[in-house]
Amino acid sequence: MKLVVSLMLLFGVGASSTVAGISQGCLAYEPARVKLHGMISRRTFAGPPNYESTKKGDERETYWILRLNKAICVKGDESLPGISEAEKNVSQLQLVLDAEQYARYKNLPGKRAEVSGKLFHSHTGHHHTNVLLKVAEMKPAHR
Asked: Is the N end or the C end of the chain the one with fewer CB atoms within 10 Å?
């Protein structure tokens, strides 16, 4: 419920209104901005050249993951196949940050946080969750 209220406040709508890009409680991909809550952790994945196994020689890629307090769904856009797929029961998001953000938020992994930004669908081997969040701002959660 808190997520819905946060989204309504973010978009400036009342409970009975419909916001373009949000359908039946699902969030929208960019350019819509969302605010989500969860636990941030670091996770290492296999990278190039095969994106299969670091034990078999693939590079290690470490990313931050937001494990959501409550799973979400994201509305797809049929006019953008492959990059705007509908997703249900999304409980983890890979966070996309720039170097300055990694430095600024270095103390957040291992903690609960409120993260705002724009959602997009995975489309490269470097994307390790179906839905990713390009981070605009993060702060410790107040719960």
From this structure: N
- Cα distance between residue 92 and residue 40, in whole Å: 10
Count of structural domains within the chain:
1
User: CA-based angle 53:128:86, to the nearest 5?
Assistant: 145
pLDDT (0 to 100) of residue 86 = 95
Note the pLDDT tens digit of each residue in 33-57: 999 999 999 998 888 888 888 899 8
For 57, phi then psi, to 5°, come to 105, -5
Structural domain boundaries enclosing 76: 2-140
Half-sphere exposure of 56 (CA within 13 A, CB side): 9
- Find the angle CA(15)-CA(17)-CA(18) to the nearest 5 degrees: 120
Residue for token digits 């605010």? 35
Query: 121, 83 in Cβ contact below 8 A?
Result: yes
Q: Is 24 or 37 the better-scoring residue by pLDDT?
A: 37
- To 5 degrees, how large is the angle CA 2–CA 104–CA 46? 85
